[in-house]
């Protein structure tokens, strides 16, 4: 009976040792999983930050595009004004030439 008891005790100790090894292995896997989860969470936060920066860049570029469009509209308006003034100047030049021609005629007649 003593032999049987010692055999049972030895088997029990071996089972406890196996269970301890299994527990240690599972704890190690759990720790590795926790570290992997933390790294993934950090990578996710970094990715979110990069997305926010990219969105800000896009908003900035869109605002710049809007500004460019506004400036182009102002440039077109100024070009139109310049063309009108050039046309007025051309008409004024023709009137001045006509008046100068008439003045020369009058000088010639007098």
Salient structural properties:
110 residues, mainly alpha
Question: What does this protein structure show overall?
Answer:
The structure is a single chain. The protein has one helix spanning 2-109. By secondary structure, the protein is mainly α. The relative contact order is 0.03.
Q: Beta-strand percentage?
A: under 5%
- What is the overall pLDDT average? 90
- What's the count of strands? 0
Content-based structural category: mainly alpha
How far is the first residue's CA from the last residue's CA?
Answer: 160 Å
Nearest-angstrom radius of gyration?
A: 47 Å
Give the number of helices. 1
What share of the residues lie within helices?
Answer: over 70%
| Low-confidence spans | none
Profile the largest sheet.
Answer: none
Overall outline: rod-shaped
Order of helices and strands: H
């Amino acid at each position: 009976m003593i032999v049987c008891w010692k055999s049972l005790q030895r088997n029990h100790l071996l089972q406890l040792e196996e269970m301890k090894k299994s527990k240690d292995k599972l704890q190690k896997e759990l720790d590795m999983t926790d570290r992997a989860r933390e790294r993934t969470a950090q990578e996710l936060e970094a990715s979110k930050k990069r997305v926010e920066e990219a969105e800000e860049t896009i908003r900035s570029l869109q605002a710049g595009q809007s500004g460019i469009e506004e400036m182009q509209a102002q440039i077109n308006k100024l070009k139109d004004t310049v063309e009108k003034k050039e046309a007025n100047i051309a008409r004024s030049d023709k009137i001045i030439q006509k008046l100068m021609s008439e003045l020369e005629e009058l000088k010639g007649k007098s």
